[in-house]
Amino acid sequence: MAPTFPPIYLLKWNLEHDPKELHRLEEEIDVVFDIKEAKLVLGKVKLKRRAALELRKLGLDTEEVVTTESEPDTDTDHNHHEEQIASQIVPSAPGNPPAQRLAISPRSTLRPSDETIKVLDLAWYTGSLNAGKLLPIEDYLVYEGRIKSKILPVKPKQTLLPAQVEPRRQISTVSPTQRHFRTGPRKFGGNSVHSSSQPARLLHKTTSEDEAYAALPPIPKYLHSPYSCQRPTPLHCPNEDFLSELRIIKQARNLKGDEVGVRAYSVAVAAIASYPYSLTSALELSRLPGCGSKISKLWQDWKTLGHVEEADEARSDPDLQVLDLFWKIHGVGEASARDFFSKGWRSLDDIVEQGWDRISRDQQIGVKYYDEFLQRIPREEVEKIASVILDYANHIRDGFRMVICGGYRRGKPDSGDVDVVLSHPNENATHRFLVELLESLERDEYITHRLIVSMKNSDRGQNPLNWKGSMPRSRGGFDSLDHAFLVWQEPTWPSKDEDLKGNPDARNPNVHRRVDIIISPWKTAGCAVLGWSGGTMFERDLRHYCKQQLGFKFDSTGVRRQDNGEWVDLEKGDGDLLVKERRVFSGLGLEWRDPTERCTD
DNA sequence: AGGCTGTACTG
DNA sequence: CAGTAC
DNA sequence: GCCT
């Protein structure tokens, strides 16, 4: 006889890839859909951390109830591998064997108080069924948490179709196997080739559309995620020619001040850039996140006409060319570009001659080094600059660690600027450090300008607790800088001595480079490395994911809770900067992405 | 129908 | 505050 | 422009 189960809530995580199985289990177990009614939570989870993350998504903020002295915390290193595989959208292989049990001593019959919530391995359920009675839960306990607070019900934004809705589109004759992604093909373009002159929605046409849909290659599982931080996005992809067109339109929108348009095109570009096949149809494209009717129509035009009209217009619009010229000046954005244009200026010379003292200092520097800043920096030079910085850092205080981030770390053959993150295992070593570093670099004439210098992070970054409310603003001023944005120039060149002999003011021929130096306190250095390594969309989506899915706020200075700003430490433990970065991924429930897979624009 | 990353700087 | 940058 |  089947045992009687208490009210159970079933975690969907790791079952999402198999909606049918999920649905079957939900029926069979007779789950409750409100976690507050549940006495037990079951799931295909094996790690404490993952269990806690899933509870957090459901609006329950818990802290672990330690039931044994022995069980190591889940974030120790050898668990990483497992956690990395087990991510949101890349479920581990189906048919996970139940219960290789973690050794939990059954001494845990302490207080089964109502304040705690227990997450058990699903195997407890199947085992109990087989045994015909409820098995002791101790052997299956993955995580026991005490509810600290209920947080704003973090909306269970699903990236996949809920099982209950699944059968809805069965009007179609197509086998359901191909349709895990969307409710159906989206219509694209009111005048797309498919629908323009069709008299009516004839049945056979619907069917053939569906058949075409079913015949497409399956979408890679990671492209079910709308978050580019959950997808590998390599530097190059099979659809780069089309992407170039989209990027042109995107930049045109940028120059026109259409932020929303820029956003939309950025999302689409990021999705296509992570699609590993050469696109063959607009329908195929329309399945990707962020790619709707407009993007599909553009693809169709590009394919059939060989060009995209809006991109052509952008390319041939002389006014846009001028705006683009201005926009590429450091310190000039859409507004200033248009402002300059409206003054009748059409070239850099116009700015210099007619408006030099009306533009900002940043913009003056930007104009002065316009060509140099646009020159790409080869990898060797990036490495050279970074090694100088590290040498100087270690000369002041030994033991600094550095990661070169930015495009360099993503594997680009050349970079627009140099981003380095420096940290030191000794928390005190980073205090008041950047000022010293800058002074020593300036003394040796590596730095020609400071574009900005900021102390935002060190005020709370050095001490991430209690930042909400009122942190004292850095008293005394510049004792805790943590970010410098500089103009850099290698001070020596081969013929320097001779040149100076002939002319004491001989020009240094080395190209001026933009260099970002970030000093991070050790405890959040993984976040700094992560935050400075991804492409724009990757970083945007990372923040978005943290907020929407976890109720966390991510930035390069750390992870905090949305509601009270309390710091969340995801990096504790030994390890270098790269290990710490990995910990942040896994602590956020994300599969590890190599930097070369973060190549969103 | 509303939202789109989030924040510190400069002027 | 608007504008820019990361 | 796309998503929820």
UniProtKB/TrEMBL annotation:
Signal peptide: none annotated. GO terms for cellular component: nucleus. CDD domains: NT_POLXc (cd00141). It catalyses: DNA(n) + a 2'-deoxyribonucleoside 5'-triphosphate = DNA(n+1) + diphosphate. Residues 75-84 have a biased composition (Basic and acidic residues). Residues 64-74 have a biased composition (Acidic residues). SMART domains: POLXc (SM00483). Keywords: DNA damage, DNA repair, DNA-directed DNA polymerase, Nucleotidyltransferase, Nucleus, Transferase. Residues 117-142 form the BRCT domain. PROSITE patterns: BRCT, DNA_POLYMERASE_X. Its EC number is 2.7.7.7. One of its GO terms (molecular function) is metal ion binding. Residues 64-108, 171-199 are annotated as: Disordered. It holds the Pfam family DNA_pol_B_palm. It is found in: Nucleus. GO terms for biological process: double-strand break repair via nonhomologous end joining. DNA polymerase that functions in several pathways of DNA repair. Involved in base excision repair (BER) responsible for repair of lesions that give rise to abasic (AP) sites in DNA. Also contributes to DNA double-strand break repair by non-homologous end joining and homologous recombination. Has both template-dependent and template-independent (terminal transferase) DNA polymerase activities. Has also a 5'-deoxyribose-5-phosphate lyase (dRP lyase) activity. Belongs to the DNA polymerase type-X family. This is DNA polymerase.
